[in-house]
Sequence to fold (312 residues):
Amino acid sequence: MANDNLKHTDWQLIINEIANEVRPLLNEGKVADYIPELANVDSNAFGISICMLDGRAFSCGDAHTKFSVQSISKVFSLTKAFSILKDDLWKRVGKEPSGNPFNSLIQLENENGKPRNPFINAGAIVVADCVVSNTEDSLNTIIDFIRELACNKSIKMNQAMFRSEKAFGHRNAALAHFMKSYGNIEADVDEVLDFYFGHCSLSMSCEDVARAFLFLANHGVHPVNKRRYLTASQSKRINSLLLTCGTYDAAGDFAFRVGMPGKSGVGGGIAAIIPGLLSICVWSPGLDKYGNSLAGVKALELFTTKTGISIF
Ligand code: GLN
Fold:
């Protein structure tokens, strides 16, 4: 699986080739506009970065441009909540794929306010509550945590994005209040939503995101700062959830085409990992009907096809 026979030059050539091959697809996807600020983006952008556990990094295209990480940030808040609550977390949120869109309300009533998994919005809002209820100055705590993972102290929130998410976040507010009625939100709903919108509206580049995912490719230990963020078992569990739930109701298709655990966001980013070898982030704002980057999924599919490396 972690076959690293490729030479330095091969990695760069492969991502250059991928960038060329997906170019015709850049205008096929649709940029998200249900959060109006998300539409303020160049729909032709495409970036790709790979970070290897041995310290090498390769980038191509708009890999240094900051984009809105959106749901990719759910992985960082889950990491924080899991390290605080350990397995008690799973009393509050499930571990099954939802088979429903990321912002769906339908399952919640049938399942008594316990979201299917931590990556649909309802699940990420419960995870947000776990962090808010167990940390001081929660939003700054999570932002500092993400800066540490990405080895970049300059990462910050896009304030216009945050205001836009908050002003148009009626569905998320509905999910949060609904879960509060079942007793599955402990803290004040507005505080939980501010935390959730706050981490979703962080701006990061492909390189930042790829670096921030390295610990998941290394059994919970970040190879750059050598810190352990999760036990090997917890890291395995998050990767399993990424494979089964990280791209919502397209997770089956993503696993089939790509063969890596990955997390998408409606800003057009997708982060993925190969345990023992590397992390990768692609970004292209045009989305498919499931809310995953259309060219981004194709780029990752090409990556595992061309390199012959996947988790299988
Ligand atoms: N902040 C976005 C929302 O709550 C995140 C969704 C996503 O990236 N899929 O709708």
Observations:
- The pocket of glutamine is lined by residues 70-71, 102-103, 121, 165, 172, 200, 265-266, 291 (CB under 6 Å).
- The chain has 13 helices and ten strands.
